[in-house]
Amino acid sequence: MKPSKIGKNNRINLICLISLILFPILSYSIFFIPNKEIIISLTREDSILEYAGAISLLFAAIFFFLSYRKDKSGCDLLILKTKKNVFFLLLGIIFFVGFAEEISWGQRIFHYRTPAFITKIADQQNEVSIHNLKIFDSRDWNVREKSNWFLTWKPAKIFKLFWATFCLLIPLTYKFNRHARQFLKRINLPIVSIWIGLFFVINHIVLKAHGFFVSEELRAYMVEVHETNTYFVFLIVSFYLFNEIRRKREIS
Question: C-alpha 201: how far from its chain's center?
Answer without folding.
Answer: 13
